[in-house]
User: Which sequence fits this backbone?
């Protein structure tokens, strides 16, 4: 399964009981763009040192899938079919290329993507 950035961010919240299991699962993976999103958001420096460290740990200990030509081509097709954010197109394309579900709270961002299995831990699977 591929974890969206929101799952990693929620998992780093103190006392999280919903997302941490997904983020720390041996099957958990992230698309390379999600490392950029999680660690590169503008307010990262405003987080407590503990939360920064937790996010850093989650990102660096989760298997990262590289952005290759097949994923790029699929992301291009997804964006041609319907307007989507670049990061969403890349993570959807990555999940489709690897044949794994995408774990995200933002189901509506992906509901138009044919063949993509989405798991929302906040509503069940």
Assistant:
């Amino acid at each position: 399964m591929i974890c969206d950035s929101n799952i990693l961010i929620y998992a780093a919240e103190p006392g999280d009981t919903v997302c941490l299991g997904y983020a720390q699962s041996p099957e958990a993976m992230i698309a390379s763009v999600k490392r950029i999103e999680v660690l590169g958001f503008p307010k990262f420096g405003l987080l407590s040192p503990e939360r920064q460290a937790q996010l850093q740990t989650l990102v660096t200990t989760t298997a990262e899938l590289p952005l290759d030509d097949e994923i790029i081509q699929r992301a291009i097709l997804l964006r041609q079919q319907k307007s989507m954010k670049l990061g969403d197109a890349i993570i959807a394309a990555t999940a489709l290329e690897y044949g794994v579900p995408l774990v995200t709270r933002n189901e509506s961002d992906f509901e138009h993507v044919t063949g993509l299995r989405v798991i929302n831990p906040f509503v069940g699977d």
Observations:
- Strands lie at 2-3, 29-31, 63-65, 102-103, 118-119.
